[in-house]
Design goal:
4-stranded antiparallel sheet, alpha+beta
């Protein structure tokens, strides 16, 4: 028993003149993974069984659909190519693999019809499109060791992921409940969601081991998808004939303790800058004066209290401010020294430049284009200050000839 491709002329022109049944897929939404075929035109063979696809019937298959002709629960033939197919009980399985190529033939050989007399034939369809928008969310915070913060942090995340059925024969045998007529992804997702969340935790832990900062995880959807593929795809493909296509993280949040630790670390990093630290202290003084001016007991009392407080802590604040200013001055001096070093290097490179007779400009002892050696230097030389000299010292700045 098998199917053969029907010509368009036979379908469009001669169908009305034949006592045939025509099968179409039941309504298939974007989250439908499996549905049964329904008769859209009943032939005049009223004596046949309702559970049997009559010999000569036409089956219509659309794009991104996998059609199975099933007999007694066993697949006897299939196609993943769009078109019209005629049921022929005298033919062998044709196995039109289409976009799936020959990868599913091994699965078919394991669950194919065993040669018994056909007793109950049905038509089923499996959705080969990407099944999108499957929601997930972590029930408990996931631990994440961040090397930048050098701490064990905890995060929650939720979003969506998508799957694609890559081996529909295996998917039908392992994932579809028996006697089901139509299956939505939500009907079978409970087990897969648990496995997905377990793999998600492993993938996030792997990102932690790879040194990715926790604040970057939300923008690493593609990388996370690859981590999940490495963790889950092999198992899901082997067991159920499906795989992860994409992962979208809608939000990522930290638990309360992790948020406090991150804020403390960030504040400490900011205050390590002496300019920020000095501004922070000056801001405190300004806010104190503002609060003293609005004292309900009178501005004078407020300023007196503030004066006493500043007198008590003035030494500490003065010392801290002096330290800040000293570090700021040291930082400024380092910046100036770095700029001077850079300028000096640029001047030396400029002085050492020489033009070869071939036209190339070089800084080494040989031309980079033709290999000629650098010509003997003339008595004139250029100082870093820009002056041209002939003696051992610069006539403008006194620098020694290099």
């Amino acid at each position: 028993m098998g199917i053969i491709r029907a010509t368009m002329q036979a379908v469009s022109g001669g169908l009305a003149d034949q006592w045939l049944e025509v099968y179409e897929p039941e309504d298939m939404g974007e989250r439908t993974v499996f549905t049964s075929g329904v008769k859209v035109r009943k032939g005049q063979n009223t004596k046949g069984s309702s559970d049997t696809v009559s010999n000569g019937s036409i089956i219509h298959v659309y794009d991104n659909q996998f059609m199975m002709l099933v007999d007694g629960g066993k697949i006897v033939d299939y196609t993943a190519e769009a078109g019209y197919y005629k049921v022929d009980n005298s033919s062998l399985p044709s196995l039109f693999s289409g976009q799936l190529k020959d990868g599913i033939k091994e699965s078919f050989s394991r669950v194919k019809f065993g040669g018994q007399t056909p007793t109950m034939q049905k038509v089923f369809y499996i959705n080969l499109q990407e099944i999108k928008g499957i929601k997930f969310g972590t029930r408990n915070p996931i631990n994440y060791f961040d090397n930048f913060y050098n701490a064990e942090l905890f995060l929650r995340t939720h979003g969506t992921y998508s799957i694609k059925i890559t081996d529909p024969v295996k998917f039908y045998a392992e994932a579809i409940p028996r006697n089901a007529k139509q299956v939505e992804m939500e009907d079978i997702n409970e087990q897969y969601l648990s496995e997905f969340l377990e793999a998600l935790q492993s993938a996030i832990n792997q990102m932690s081991a790879d040194g990715i900062r926790i604040s970057y995880v939300a923008s690493k959807g593609r990388e996370l998808g690859r981590y999940l593929a490495n963790t889950l795809d092999e198992e899901w493909n082997k067991m159920r004939g499906m795989e992860i296509q994409a992962v979208g993280i809608a939000s990522l949040s930290y638990d309360e303790k992790s948020t406090q630790l991150i804020n403390m670390r960030n504040e400490g990093a900011m205050l390590s800058d002496p300019t920020v630290r000095e501004g922070y202290m000056q801001g405190h003084v300004a806010r104190g004066m503002e609060a003293a001016g609005s004292n309900p007991n009178g501005a004078m009392a407020g300023f007196m209290g503030m004066g006493m407080g500043m007198q008590a802590g003035g030494g500490i604040m003065g010392a801290a401010s002096a330290t800040n200013m000293q570090q700021m001055q040291m930082q400024q001096e380092r910046n100036i020294q770095q700029q001077q070093n850079i300028q000096q290097q640029q001047n030396i490179q400029q002085i050492n430049k020489w033009s070869c007779s071939c036209g190339a400009v070089n800084t080494g002892k040989f031309c980079s284009e033709c290999g000629k050696p650098k010509p003997e230097s003339s008595k004139e030389w250029n100082c870093s200050c820009g002056a041209v000299n002939t003696g051992k010292f610069c006539s403008e700045c006194g620098s020694q000839r290099r």
